[in-house]
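Table S2 (text version). Query chain:
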Amino acid sequence: MKALRTLAALAVIMWCPSVLASEEAWQALRTGGTVALFRHARAPGTGDPSHFRLEDCSSQRNLSAEGRRQAAEIGSRFRARNIRVERVLSSRWCRSLDTAKLAFGDLAEPFPPLDSFFAERDRRDAQTRAVLQLIESWDRNGVLVLVTHQVNITALTDIFPIEGEILVLRPKEKGFDLVGRIQP
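Corresponding structure-token output:
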């Protein structure tokens, strides 16, 4: 029976390589010196309404109840795995800042280069360069958490993440290595 369970577990791992990648990513976060780049939690819709105003959350696309639970769960998963988070930076959009605050509390602080450029594509290159420089300069023992939007992550990594997905990056002098992905 034990051999059968072992074979079943191996079959799951072979058919679900993301399980291994996810564990490798969590281990890299535990080790530290890494960056957790993730897309805000569940916020139904795409882009922002035409009446969008940064200073008014009621004019924006916001987290759903599911998204609020998802954000809290992200923080719980970090704490349960003893991930030492040193700094949390977020887009100023309410859905990102709320995700960061629900997951990491008072550590969350706004960082304009993480703001969405979905409606203003001319900001893409400057913002992506600023975020890349931040990642490259991360040389601390703990984890830097960056909460942003799909367009920003795709511009930086060529990956289209789902809401709440975490990309674990290991900074290099020029660029970074993608260690793995953790899905909600």
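Notes on Table S2: The chain is about 40% helix and 20% strand. Helices lie at 2-15, 17-31, 65-80, 94-104, 124-137, 150-157.
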